[in-house]
Design brief:
Oligomer: single chain
Number of helices: 4
Structural class: alpha+beta
Strand content: 15-25%
Radius of gyration: 17 Å
Largest sheet: 3 strands, mixed
Number of strands: 5
Strand order of the largest sheet: 1-2-3
Length: 127
């Protein structure tokens, strides 16, 4: 389940923009790009239709892997992969809908400020 491991994104993005203060959806965006890159690796092409045909497959039913390098090596060995990145598992069903994933529950105070004294709670859901 995604939790404090999501904080790895902070130094990565502040290296690009030191003034950045909001890291919302950083891990999810990172995972989305890795999923597309892995689908392109399997497709052996940069053709959008060829990549799209493999997006669902890299998220389920194969050998679990957690980094681009690890998954790429499995692909090179002819294995089916199941990528689970920093945001947690993102399994897509046959039609492309998420069937599991993580989400955050944020708490707001009377001034509409997030997290005033209450930590963000990360949860995992599965259909």
């Amino acid at each position: 389940m995604a939790n404090d491991s999501r904080l790895w994104v902070v130094p990565l993005v502040t290296e690009v923009d030191p003034a950045l203060i909001d890291y919302s959806y950083g891990p999810e965006t990172y995972d989305a790009m890795i999923i597309v890159a892995l689908a392109a690796e399997i497709a052996g092409s940069d053709d959008p239709a060829a990549i799209a045909a493999h997006i669902n497959g890299v998220t389920r039913d194969g050998t679990k892997c957690t980094t681009f390098e690890e998954c790429k090596a499995l692909i090179a060995d002819g294995e089916d992969i199941d990528y689970d990145g920093p945001a947690g598992p993102m399994t897509f069903g046959p039609e492309g809908e998420p069937t599991e994933g993580s989400f955050a529950i944020l708490s707001y105070d009377d001034t509409n400020t997030v997290g005033a004294g209450v930590a963000t709670e990360y949860r995992f859901a599965q259909i």
